[in-house]
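Re: the request from the purification team.
They wanted to know what the chain is likely to look like in 3D before they choose a buffer screen. I agreed to run a prediction and write the result into the notebook, where they can find it.
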Amino acid sequence: MLKKIFVLIRKIIVSCFILYSFNLLVSPLSINIPINYYSVAILTLFEFPGLLSLVIIFLVAL
């Protein structure tokens, strides 16, 4: 049980770093996905497809 909690915490931290690095890489394109509970949860649950869906949602909202 404790191992599953540590895996979840590690995935959350990695998701935050992925969002931060993505924002740094695409900042010249004016694409900035906010790092909040919802975006981190989507990225934690769905990983790379979640990141793609966040980018698509951001681009549609423009």
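For the purification team: The radius of gyration is 12 Å.
Please add any questions underneath this entry.
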